[in-house]
Amino acid sequence: MRQCSPESDFQVEPAGGGVSARIIRYLGSDWAVRIPSYIRGLPVTEIGRGAFRGRNLTEVVIPNTVLEIEADAFRNNQLASVAIPDSVTRVGFLAFRGNDTLTSVTIPFATLAAADAAWTNRSEFCAGALSWRYGIPAGVIRNSAGVVVN
Q1: What pLDDT is attached to residue 144?
Q2: What is the C-alpha separation between 141 and 45, in angstroms, rounded?
């Protein structure tokens, strides 16, 4: 995969009061996508709702500038694995649903802790709840140390 997908592959809008960018749609045709850290000189901090939905992606690399992945962002693709960077503090509802080919998802514990205020302790972070919340098949969710969450 090349360094980063070209900026022209992404439709963006201002975020964070105009100091960062939110990707609202993937316009490219590649199945392997490396999201750039900066678009139009602004850090990419958000991946918008449904931005990559149904694009037949097989691989995606998310930069460590991203703070939030909104609902349905990567829904209905063909992703085999996903590594969510430590910078991400929020993953929206069913962000990865419909990726039946997923075999591994690495997600930082800090992201899990911020996911839902209703989850108040580590024992509630089970794979079944995460599977329901994010649309990730049970048994493939790993923490940032590579340990399966169960």
Answers
A1: 46
A2: 23
Q: Is 7-142 in CATH node 3.80.10? A: yes
Question: What distances in angstroms separate CA 97 from CA 16, 22, 133, one per listed residue?
Answer: 27, 21, 9
What is the rounded distance in angstroms from the CA atom of residue 77 to the CA atom of residue 116? 24
Side-chain-side CA neighbours of residue 108 (13 Å): 14
Cα–Cα distance measured from residue 131 to residue 124, given in angstroms and rounded to the nearest whole number: 13
Region at 115 (left for phi over 0; alpha for psi -120 to 50; beta for the rest): alpha
> What pLDDT is attached to residue 150?
44
The list of the chain residues with pLDDT below 70 reads 1-2, 109-150
Q: Output the pLDDT for position 118.
A: 33
In a 3-state reduction of DSSP, which class is residue 133?
helix
Q: What is the pTM of this model?
A: 0.80
Question: What is the model's pLDDT at position 96?
Answer: 84
Pairing of strands 104-106, 141-142: parallel
Helix (H, G, I), strand (E, B) or coil at 140: coil
The contacts of residue 126 (CB under 8 Å, 6+ apart) are 149, 150
